[in-house]
Amino acid sequence: MHDEPDIRAVAMLPDRGLVRDRLGRPMRDLRISVMDRCNFRCPYCMPRETFHERYRFLKSSERLSFDEIVRTARVAVGLGVDKIRLTGGEPLLRAGLAELVAEISTIEGVDDIALTTNGVLLASHAAELKGNGLHRVTVSLDSLDESVFERMNGGFGGLHQVLDGIEAALEAGLRPVKVNAVVKRGVNDHTVLPLLARFRGTPVIVRLIEFMDVGNRNAWRPDEVVSSAELLGSIRARWPVRALPGRIRGEVAERYAYEDGAGEIGFISSVTAPFCGDCSRARLSSEGVFYTCLFAGQGTDLRSPLRAGAADDELLAIIRRAWTGRDDRYSELRDPKDAAAQPLRKIEMHYIGG
Ligand SMILES: C[S@@+](CC[C@H](N)C(=O)[O-])C[C@H]1O[C@@H](n2cnc3c(N)ncnc32)[C@H](O)[C@@H]1O
Ligand code: SF4
Q1: Does ligand 1 come within 6 angstroms of the Cβ of 117?
Q2: Is residue 188 lining ligand 1, measured as CB closer than 6 Å?
Q3: Measuring CA to CA, which residue among 217, 163, 192 is closest to residue 342?
Q4: β 136-140/177-183 pair status
């Protein structure tokens, strides 16, 4: 077991400071998958045929403990990370998640703590999460039509719990609250406008995500992707919108505002307009593997050194080496035809986190 490392000890490490990868990109965001399990089986992420009752998920001893997560986060902050997102699998299935938020919020240098959730369990946790230091939340919600919602999540109910979760997040003061909708042709594309209509004039920002070829098990096909350009065309036919300038480097969504002031919409176009050039996102899987790309095939094991008693400066050196050696730009290099044939072994989304 380690003694609890002192924040100041990390601050004083000699190699501390902003690291840059081989393409000059800094490491600013750390996305932490706290749970590989999920209470949904969205076919684009965890299709039932693969993630069935006998699927072997991690044992709890195989997942990083909260202490190990906080320690890794603190070391990553020493290399430039200032934004932490908790994700999964479904992060709210991890018992005591609010305690983890409280611990992360004590790390000096963390400016932003966010959560991505499917929202089913959010209503009862939103206030405590906010009280413990969570800043914002992204809720995945692919359709307001119950049968389409169920088709997109692998056959589960829960639409009303998700909507209650969004309400609870707003009431708790989490800002911004975003809704992520993956759009698949022929499945939920006809329900995009009603989804936007529901949140127009509210503080909720809807972001439309192109169906991506993450992992190797979601039977991705380019003809099922609805491009952001196509969606923008149908949205424009209904409401006038104008493009907004990007705010920060590394921003994943292109933003548009309704001309009538009813809010904004985001588009995440990883397939048709890749944004690797500014990518500052590192990822930590639930079992403690550090990845430098969502589409990575392999990562760097941090759990072994964490459990073997590595000191902070050793962990820092391992993360620094992984980031400085990075030249990933999968989305920019992807040829949709090859991606459909799925030649690469890529890590699954539920395991690495979105
Ligand atoms: C992997 S989930 C984890 C967090 C939580 N379970 C949720 O659904 O919000 C994170 C995000 O990844 C998105 N996602 C998963 N698979 C995807 C795919 N193949 N293409 C695009 N987005 C995907 C989900 O819609 C979700 O917004
Ligand atoms: S997208 Fe989220 S809710 Fe859907 S299966 Fe993946 S982890 Fe679960």
Answers
A1: yes
A2: no
A3: 217
A4: parallel
- Helices 228-238, 192-199: axis angle to 10 degrees equals 60
What pTM does this model have?
A: 0.92
Bridge partners of residue 115, in order along the sequence: 86, 137
Contacts of 43 (CB under 8 A, 6+ apart): 152, 154, 218, 219
DSSP bridge partners of 136:
114
Task: Answer yes or no: is pLDDT of 334 > 70.
Answer: no
Number of H helices, E strands in the chain: 13, 12
Identify the CA nearest to 326 among candidates 287, 352, 300: 300
- Characterize the bridge pairing of strands 112-117 and 300-301: unpaired
Instruction: Identify whether the C-beta of residue 42 lies closer than 8 Å to the C-beta of residue 88.
Output: no
Report the DSSP beta bridge partners of residue 301. 289
Neighbours of 145 (CB within 10 A): 16
- With CA atoms as reference, report the closest residue to 13 among 307, 316, 290: 316
The backbone torsions φ and ψ at residue 336, rounded to the nearest 5 degrees and listed phi first, read -50, -35
Question: Tokens at residue 351, please?
Answer: 């395991």
CA dihedral sign, ordered 274, 277, 280, 285: positive
Cis peptide before 176 (omega within 30 of 0): yes
Paired residues of 139 in beta bridges: 117, 179
Strands 289-291 and 281-284: antiparallel
Q: Kindly identify the ligand whose nearest atom is closest to the C-alpha of 339.
A: 1
Tell me, using a 6 A CB cutoff, whether residue 35 lines ligand 1.
no
Pocket-testing residue among 36, 140, 351, ligand 1, by greatest number of atoms within 8 A of Cβ: 140
Whole-angstrom CA distances from 82 to 9, 74, 158, 171, 282 are: 18, 10, 33, 26, 12
- Residue whose CB lies within 8 A of the most ligand 1 atoms, among 45, 166, 295, for a mutation test: 45
DSSP bridge pairs for 256: 243, 265
- Look at residue 337 in the predicted model and tell me its pLDDT: 58
Residue 302's pLDDT is: 98
Q: Return the amino acid letter for 89.
A: G
Q: Residue 87's pLDDT band (boundaries 50, 70, 90)?
A: very high
Tell me the ligand closest to 352's alpha carbon.
1
